[in-house]
């Protein structure tokens, strides 16, 4: 369960988008992500302890961990690490599972992810080099719809893998698929996200958005996908966590709306997921 209040007594915040790596490879993994995005200047080292210290400093009470299986053979390793992080920090680290759509044991891995009590499945089609509407992802979607949500990296105008139009086509054919599209629906492709994903009931997060676009465009996305379906996220370790908080504080929102983005929406989403997960593995078996 998520902790109830922030340490400093201010507005409660839950970070719905972080990436954490084992200490031995953390800096290298974080740098690899920066290199993928044409040499972005990463802010943090990607270690769990660094995340916990930074978020505690800012009064962030919990973080949703999003592991990425870059290759099919990484699935079990990234999920063991995510599980260990969650068990070591109950209520503070809330893990999705990583999965590569080309994993030859896809069905078995999906069953294990569900039975081990993860929130859902994280995909990064651009880094994984898989078309979100291609046969591998369609096979995955057919098996998880109605069971586990997909948290997608969405959008990248350098590639085609996660374009909003392709996500929309996937959702057309799998109507029971629950989807969170990171980066306000489509990183670097925000107009396309609004065009193709509006009204589809997706969730979005605020991560890696205002670092790249204007407040006006961010607000257009917020209005398109609705305040009620928007999570706060930092994309740790890429950016300043404090800046990510300030960005949401600067949005022209009511206090009630800001609270929904900072914690209320993700809590509502997690409560729904927790009820479904308990039916599969019991309350003692879930990781969030």
What would you note in describing this structure?
There is one protein chain. With 288 residues, the protein is α/β, with parallel strands linked by helices. The protein has one domain: Metal-dependent hydrolases (TIM Barrel), CATH 3.20.20. It is 43% helix and 11% strand. The protein has eleven helices and nine strands. It has helices at 26-36, 48-57, 75-88, 106-115, 125-128, 135-144, 164-173, 190-197, 215-225, 241-249, 255-281; strands at 13-18, 60-65, 93-95, 97-98, 121-123, 150-152, 179-181, 203-205, 230-231. The strands form two sheets. A six-stranded parallel β-sheet has the order 4-5-6-7-8-9. Strands 1-2-3 form a three-stranded parallel β-sheet. α3 (75-88) links the parallel β2 and β3 (93-95). α8 (190-197) runs parallel beside α9 (215-225). The longest helix has 27 residues, at 255-281. The N and C termini lie close together (6 Å). 49% of the residues are buried. Residues 3-9 have low confidence and may be disordered.
